[in-house]
Structures are given as C-alpha cells and as structure tokens.
Amino acid sequence: MRTTICNSRRDFLKAAGAIVVGFSWCVPGVLAQQASPARLPGSLNDNRMLDGWLRINANGTVTIFTGKCELGQGITTALAQIASDELDVAYERIEMVWADTARTPNEGMTAGSQSVENSGTALRYACAEARQILLGLAAAKLGTTADRLTVVDGTVSGGTGKTTYAELAREANLKREATAQVKPKPSSQYKMIGKSVQRRDIPSKVTGGQSYVQDMRLPGMVFGRVVRPPSYRAQLVSFDESAIKAMPGVVAVVRDGSFLGVAAEREEQAIKAAQALRASAKWNETPDLPPSAPGLFEHLQKMRSQDSVVNQKIPTAPVGGKVTTYDATFTRPYQAHASMGPSCAVAQVRDGKYQVWTHSQGVFPLRRELNKVLGVPEANITCTHVEGAGCYGHNGADDVALDAILVARATGGRPVKLQWMRDDEFSWEPYGSPMVMKMRARLEESGGIVDWRHEVWSHPHSTRPVSNPGGNLLAGWHIAKAVAPAPSPNIPQPAGGADRNAVPPYEFPSQQIVLHYITDVPIRVSALRTLGAYANVFAAECFMDELAIAAGADPVEFRLRHMKDPRARAVIETCAQKAGWNAGQKSDGSHGRGFAYSRYKNLACYVAVAADVEVDRRTGKVRVTKAVSAVDAGLIINPDGLIAQIEGGIIQSASWTLKEHVGFNRQRITTRSWADYPILTFPEVPAVEVHLINRPDERSLGTGEGSQGPAVAAIANAVFHATGARLRDLPFTAKAVKVALSDAPSRAA
Amino acid sequence: MPNYTLQVNGTARNVSVEPDTPLLYILRNDLELNGPRYGCGLSQCGACTVLVDGRPTRSCVTAVSSLGAKKITTLESLGSKDRLHPLQKAFIEEQAAQCGYCTNGMIMSAKALLDKTPRPTEAQIKKALAANLCRCGTHNRVVRAVQRAAKEMAA
C-alpha cells in the first residue's frame, strides 16, 4: 500500500538541500522517508514549530501551550516551572494553555505518566531556543553580544542599557522550526525546577471558582441526560416518545438505534425525563456475561487467547544441587476508576461546526474518533479540554463527549451540558481487566532463584479512542450506523500493557514470561491507572516474599540478593532504613509489616513501599496503619507534587486492594452506586511517608503510577507476616480474610 | 411552578421551581454557585455538601420545599481568593487537593466540625469526614489542613 505523507515545504526542501521557492508537498511514503527531518527531543519531534509552544505577550507575560491535560495531577504547574527556568521569566508571568485542538500542540494522550518526560522535554528545548533568539535581538539593540547579557524576569540588561522580552516580541520570529541546538540549562542553574511550587488550580477549587467542565454555563444552554441500555448488548425495541416530549421543559428527545438521550431547560427536568424514558423503554437482552469470581478466573483461562512468550532468558549453566519448585496463583477482579465526578461534556452544534468541551485525556485522538463515528470532517470539530474530576485512566470522559454531541444536534444550536448520573458512570465506564497470574520458581538450596516463570491471562488494558481500530466511543456502538469496537492490540514490551511489569526487575539466570491475551471482552475494559502493572507486581512481589521465606531469608535482603541495578538497590535500602525495617521481627498474630519494590513499566520511577497492617482476627478486617515509601524519579521538578502522586497512589492502591471489585450477574452489571462499590474512607486511610531520592543529572521519570504495584504487594506481605495467611485473590475483604485465616495454619504447615 | 424564597449566603433569593427540586440544582444552575458539586445524587459521597442552619447537609437529596427560611451556606460565602477563610487558606498551604472535585464537601464538613469543636483531635476530624469520599488519596493532607486551620482560628 502506498501511503502519502504531507510534509511542510521547509522539511522537504531542507532535507533535499535546495533553497528554492516552493509550496506544500504531498509526497509518496518512500520519498518522505528519505526526507525525514532530524529527530527532536520529546513532543517537539511531532510539533516542530516554536510558536506552537510559546508566545511572548506585549504585557510581559508568556503563554505556554501544551498538548497535555491538567487532570489534577499538577502537570500545568510543573510545566510552568520548567518554562520559567528556561526563559528566565517569573513563574507568575507564565500562563498555561492546554489541550485544545484549535490552539495547542498535538501530544496525543495524557497517559502513562509521560507528560513531564514528553511535554516537559519539548518545553525545555523550545524555551531555551526562544530565549536565545530573544537575546540575539537584544544584543543587536543594546550594542553588545548575547553572552554579555543577563536576564531577570524577562528584562534583559547589558551593553547600552535594558530591554524586555515584551519589547523584543514584535521582532522575534518564533514562527520557525525548532532546531533543539540550544542546550537547556544545567540543573545547577534551576530556580523554579526542584521547588515545591503550589499548584495553580487549587485556589479556585477551594473558593468555588469555575474549575470543571461541570461548572460551564453558556448562553441558552440546556441540560442533557442519556438513557443507556440495561445491559451491554441490549437492543431498544420501543419507547414512548410523545409522553416524554410532553414533559415539562423537555427540549429534545433523541433516539438513534439503541441510543437514547434527552435535553431539557432545567437539569432536574432532564433527569426526570430520562427517568421516564427509562421506565417506558423496552429492550431485548440476553444473559451473556461471564460468571462472577471465583468462576470468572477459571473462565478467563478457558477463553480464546493470543499466547506469546514476551520475555525469555535461557540458562547458560546447568544448576547443580537440590532445587525446589514453588507455585502460586494470584487473581485480580474487575475494578473501576470510580471518579468522584460523573463524566460530563458541553457540546454545541451550529452551521455544521461541532464544538465540544471535554475532560478527555486526549483531545486530538477524541476528534479523530468523533470523525469516525459522525462522519464530520475533523476540520469542523473542535475539542477543548476543561478539567473534570480525577479520572485515573480511560473512564467515561470521551464517551460523554459523543453523547453531548448527539443530543446537541437536536437542540437547534443551543449548547448542551450533559452529565452522566452515578449509575451511568459505574455501569458503563470501562473497567480495569480481571487477571490471573500463575507463578512458578525454582529455588536452589543456597537460597538463590534459578528459574522464574510468570504467566498472565488478561483482557486488553487500552481500548482508548484511536489507540486501536474500530470504534471506541460507547454511543457509537449503540447508534443505528454503529461503529463497532475491534480487538485491541496489546502494548508491546518493554512498557507492556497486560504484561506490564510482568518481566522481573531482578537478575535470574533463567526466566520465561508468558502472556495469554484475550481480546474478546464480554465486559468493557480499558486503561485503569498502571494497566497490568498493579496485578503483575502484586503477584511477582508477593511471590518473591514467599520465596524469601522458603529460603529462610529476610525479604529485603532476598530482594537485594537478586538485584544489580544501583538505583533500585538505593530505593530498596532507603525505604527499609526509613521504615525501620527489622529483619526477623516477629509478629504478635495481628500486626505485621511487608515490603515490595518495582520500577514502573521497568522504565519509569523506582518505588519501594513498606506497609504496616493490623488484622482483626475475629472479623477479618485488615487495616493498613502506615506506609513508608522511597522514590527515585530522576530529576525532580516539584517535590511536593511528586509526593502527592506517590501518596495518592498508595492510598488508592490500598482501596483497590482491601475493598474493590465490580459486581455483575450473567446479564447485567450490578455495581451502580457507592453502596455497591465501597472505597477507603478517612478513618481507614494509612499514614503515608514518602522519601525522595533526587538525581538532578538523570532525566525526569513519571510518577503517577509508580506506587500502586509496590503498595498492594507490601500490604499482602504484611498480612502474611501478621497472620501467616497468604492472600492471593484481590480484594482482601473482611469476609475473604476470615476464610484465609481459618485456612492459615494448614497453609503455614 | 411555585415560588420559593431561599436564604443563601445571607441573601434572600427567589426561585420558581417544582417542590421536589433538589437544592443542588438551584444552587448550581439558578444561583450560579460552583462550590456544591454533583457526585452521586444519593447522599453517598458528600461532594454537594452545604450547611443548612450550620449543619452539613447533602444538597443533592434536599428538596427545595423542605427548606423554608433555613439559612443555607455554601463554600462561596466562606471567603474569596483575596480574602480566604482559614480553612481555604490551609487547604492551599497543605496542597490538600488533587482533582479537587470533593474539596467543597471536605471544607464544608470541616467548617461544621470546627464551629462545634474548635480544637478537634485527628480521630474527630476523620470521623467528621468519614462520609466524604475522596478518590485521589488526598485524605492525610485534608486532615492536616483542618488541623492547621483549627490552630490558626484559635490563635
């Protein structure tokens, strides 16, 4: 197949060595490859124009454009710190604009803990280069050379006097391609990077400012709601359209295939209309869901799968002496993102132009997906990011954007704010996939692991819009001209998706990692924070604990015994030391301490966690009383922001671990409210301590997903230490723990 | 639709709505207040919390007809960005929010607590906030913020 790539004239001519007047070229793929421009750092590579990243304003401020979304993780604060340092402009004068298909670079998804790495790196180079361009102009103006100038908060001094970036802005041509030839500052010159700058969005959030898409109000706006089918593949047979249309305030009733939506003048009217619509709708549905746990996990292993060896190490020398084989199987159920704020979007459709305000994690991918479903050219669709509640991965954010558009097409140009109800969110968001991990290891008499096998069964961990073929917007499956989902490919190693962190970080002479990838998805799944890493680290780090105990070794020492990476060793040692880890410490039968380590994706931050638990042997209730963590994330941009991500990750992981699983019967999802899906509450939350290891000369590593894996394993290992019961099936509810405790003596023997 | 006069943040406000209309939608849509937020509509999460005669109340399940002349207080009346209430200031200083969607409920529940118990223990704070859900794992910062505010208000 011939692919056609449109290059800018500049790229092509420069590479061809020609200086002629030209025009936009559309060249065949082969030719474009020859002309491929030099690789630029981070997201600069795909967004090569300097003025796409920053604008110097006449009023002395600088506007920074990023394609990454503010999700409450503080990314716009961190990026503003970077821009402030590279430009020498006060942090307060940096304005951030993010994720808008009409205004910002396309940086794909804000996911995978990669924003500081990709957007931050691009901004460092773009700002350093812009600063040099400005200094060149200033030097000419002040009759000196650039190296004799100093810059303080956008004011340039030297030579014959002073000037400012604002004064230079008119002459400064940033409409040019970045070269990345200007080196960003060395870490020793940072003023803002490395400081715990307060987040920019919090003052508004604590005073009732407009912070979220849920807070948007536009002139003439009406309120929308959807009525979803009662189960995934139910078909709409009939509903009473005229009765709903006659209800107070109803502006539109939309039916497209099995998609149903309403719009009304007032929000409570829209809710009532949706309730009436639901009551009047008749559906055809069949019971086609898998069995619930524990049967779910047997079922999962019997499903059709793509099987592959994702990593293998063949032993180089035969093992001598006595070797013992150990086996253990771990499971993780369906778990929900369970955002505090149900998904919401505001859409307006006027004169063939589509505008949607969305808390999607990727406005550009969303735009392409909307084009796929609606058949509207991308040029006529604008997707603008506005914050929503925390999402922790792929929740209903993209879906509700399409819902709002489908309803807004029927309101005569009036904007529609459509928010899901709590049960829409719980029953239709894509969950984190259930997983089975079968572990096998061989231990030699001297206490070394000589062979390691990690086998994982899982559905996909990303069915995000555009990350795979087919349609990935919910309403797109239900409308008459449906765009059905297609099988989602796995994210390959080294990051991995279902097999993320299934490859051990330790040095074993022999290992085999096998993935059974199940693309049939009877229950909707997608990216939940860490993808497969949470469950794989749970299995691997609990199994390490089991092997350490089998070897008669201290779990921390046992890990170090098999670990070469000096940064990993430092994190493990720091965590153990800060936690006051005491090898051989005995438990009183209800209090225990556990340890675990992982490097997220085997590529991002290094995290170790030591957890203390208290087990009520009578009720089976597990309380995590304290977690101590050590983290190496390379160069730290914002220490407090990093701590917040790690401590939030530990607490969320403790909640997943102790409480969370999505309920369903053979026909429907039964988790519909917080009563069906309890999460950790204030009295149950552990004290958390985070210790940072700063490495100013190493590149910054993402941290949003670093602590969840080590946290779950540390908790499970602590329960074993406390009680002798090995918990291998998540979650550790009181009921499950009570059963495990009654089995424990026999297991221990 | 019947008329109601509500006492919101010290001002009488007139609205014309059905009697069963939840207070939440009146505050957000008619009075254009952003503090109270829709989280569940079921009185389970606390994101919509306001004070009614000083008591923390879930506005998502409070019908307008049940309010009469009771005093309704929302986050907006505590303070503004320029004149922050000690609780708001403490939440900023402790960076006690990630996504912040639950923050309104945290501050309003904490306000009710401090009004009655000016120097609460950690356990009292956790108990007072037990029915306010947070998904980002910001709990410990919230507790520290309430402690900080209590200290400042006592000084």
Detailed description of the structure:
The complex is a heterodimer of chains A (749) and B (155). Chain A has 749 residues and is of the alpha+beta class. Chain A folds into 4 domains: 1-37, no CATH class; 38-189, Aldehyde oxidase/xanthine dehydrogenase, molybdopterin binding domain (Aldehyde Oxidoreductase, domain 4), CATH 3.30.365.10; 213-285 and 339-428, Aldehyde Oxidoreductase, domain 4 (2-Layer Sandwich), CATH 3.30.365.10; 435-461 and 497-748, Aldehyde Oxidoreductase, domain 4. Helices cover 29% and strands 22% of the residues of chain A. Chain A is built from 19 helices and 26 strands. In chain A, the strands form 7 sheets. Chain A has a 7-stranded mixed sheet with strand order 11-12-9-19-16-17-18, sandwiched between helices. Chain A has a 5-stranded mixed sheet with strand order 14-22-21-20-15, with helices on both faces. A 4-stranded mixed sheet of chain A has the order 23-24-25-26. Chain A is globular, with a radius of gyration of 28 Å. Residues 1-34 of chain A have low confidence and may be disordered. Chain B is α+β, with helices and mostly antiparallel strands and 155 residues long. Chain B has 2 domains: 3-77, Ubiquitin-like (UB roll); 86-154, [2Fe-2S]-binding domain (DNA polymerase, domain 1). Chain B is built from 5 helices and 5 strands. Chain B has helices spanning 23-30, 86-93, 103-116, 122-128, 139-154, and strands at residues 3-8, 11-16, 49-52, 55-58, 71-73. Chain B has a 5-stranded mixed sheet, with helices on both faces. Chain B is globular, with a radius of gyration of 15 Å.
